[in-house]
Amino acid sequence: MELEHWSDYYSMAWNYSVGTVGVVMNFILIYIIRNNTPEYMKTYAIVLQTGSYWDLITAFSAIITSARYFATGKSAVLMFHGLGKYLPFDKEINSQICFTFFTIEMHGFLFSIFIIIYCLYYRKRVVTRSYDPISKRSIQIFCIASTMFMIVYIFLMLYSHLIPLSTIDELLKTSRPELINSTWIYFAIMDLSEFQDSLTEGFSMTQSTFIMIYLIYCRHKILKTLKTLNLSPATMELQKSLMKTLLIQTFIPIFHILFTIRYAYVVFTNSAQTPFFENFIETTIPVLAAITPLITLYFIKPYRIVLTKYFWSGYNCTDCCGFSNF
C-alpha cells in the first residue's frame, strides 16, 4: 500500500475548500433565517434551520478528518489527513478525535438526506392539503426529536467503536504493517458486519433509490394539485421554485450512491483498491453540506434578496422580508 500518494493532497485541498465553503455559507444561511425570515415562512424555516446546523457540523467535520478509507477483510481502516492530524495530543487521542468527527460527518450527511425527504413531504402536504396545515409546534417537536435521536445514535456508535490504538495495531500487523510506525493518524472499524454499521451502510445504499422514487411521487402530486388551484402567478412561481430547490438537492445523494456501491463491492469481494479511490470515497459527503445553503439562498427569494443586499450595496431592496408575493 502506498502511504503517500498524490491523491492525498487533492483530497485534502478538496475537503478543506469545500468544507470551508460549507461552514461559511451555513453560518450565513442560519443568520439570515434567524433574522430575515418572512412571517409566512416561519414554520418551514424551522426545518431549513435544523438542516443548516447539521450541514455546518458536517462541513466542519470534513475539514477535521479528510479521511482515506479502505477495507481489509471485515474491517475498515481510516487514515486521516485533515486538521485533526495536527492536534497537540498523542497519536491515540488524535485518532479517536478524528474518528469522532468522521462519525459525526457520516451521520450528519445521512441526517441531511433525511431532512430533504421531510422537506419533500412538507411541500407535498402544504400544496395537497392546504386545508390542514402542519402546526409550528409539530415541526419543532419533529426537529428536536429527530436531532436527539441522531445524537443518541452517534453516541452509541462511538461507545461501541472507540477502542485502544494497540488493538488496531494488532489488526494492521497482518494487513498493513507499514502503517503502524508511520506518521499517519489512523483508526479502524473492527467489524463492519455489526448491527450499527450494517444499518448505516444499508441506509447509505438505499436512500438514493428511495429519495428518487419519493421525489417523483411528490412532484407528480404537487404539479397535479397546482393545476387545479386558482393561484396567482407569484404563488405558482413560489411552489415551483421550492420544488426546484429540492430537486437539485437530491442529485448529491444520488451521485454519492455510486461510490457507496463501489465501496460495498470492494468490501464484499476483497477487490484491489487504489489510493485514489480510497481518498475519493469521502469527497461527496461535504458537497451536500456546501451546496445545500447555496441552493437555498439562491432559490428562496427573500433570502436571496437579503444576501444580495449585504454583498451588493447598489441593489434596490426596500422590504427584504415583506415579499408576500413570493
TrEMBL record:
Cellular compartment(s): Membrane
Membrane topology annotation: Multi-pass membrane protein
GO cellular component, one term: membrane
Transmembrane domains' residue ranges: 12-33, 53-71, 93-121, 141-162, 199-217, 246-268, 280-300
Keyword vocabulary terms for this entry: Membrane, Transmembrane, Transmembrane helix
Similarity field: Belongs to the nematode receptor-like protein srd family.
Identification of the protein by name: Uncharacterized protein
Gene source species: Caenorhabditis angaria
